[in-house]
UniProtKB/TrEMBL annotation:
The keyword Transferase applies. InterPro entries: Methyltransf_25 (IPR041698), SAM-dependent_MTases_sf (IPR029063). Gene3D superfamilies: Vaccinia Virus protein VP39. This is Methyltransferase family protein.
Amino acid sequence: MNSLIFEQTVTMSFLERAQEEEIMDDLSINDDGLRQTLAELDVINKWLGGNNPTLRGVRKLLHGRNKNDEIVIVDMGCGSGEMLRLIDESFRGEFERLKLVGIDANPHVIAYAKSKSLGHDIEFSVKNVFEKNSMNCDIIISTLFLHHFNSIELESLIKKWQSGATFGVVINDIHRHWFAYYSIAFLTHFFSKSYMTKYDAKLSVKRAFKKKELSVFYEGMGWRSVQVSWCWAFRWLVILRN
């Protein structure tokens, strides 16, 4: 009976998206904790396979494209720039005129991304993704970014991206699930050195999405096609084609 009560309590606590802000949402933060967190997020994504869904989505949107054309890919909420570096390494040989742009609202994050991307042909820009003058491009990618926003903000943002991305949008974000929450809590407790990672990683899961909530990205928006798939480890891959 006790185990049943525990299971019900755990399930109930993940029924709705949390609304609390993460520490990283404070754009004024510029300390060693921020840089440590960005570095740790790259390690977590690497070892848990968190980058693979985005790469898979980009490959699908690039399939059949003219390899001599300029292809512009914009990473919204680019963080450390790791995703763009991986795209550069994965696709530059096929698409020589690949233009990669990272956008983040935090100038300290952009400075870190630039420092980690020496030797890569990647542009980085400090910009609020809700600004009207966001760049037109072929593909917009978003990795572990959209869970930072509420449903109203998400609908506005996706509509904006739909009009700006010729090929489409690739979204890679977290599946809100109790196992994902307690797993990342365990991992960060024992292996993280960052106060920000320990707090934000758990909250990110609670702010993330159940499958039915992903409809805010596409319902009634007129995308040519929508593909939603679950990926390890507890990620949703959403490919929206124009």
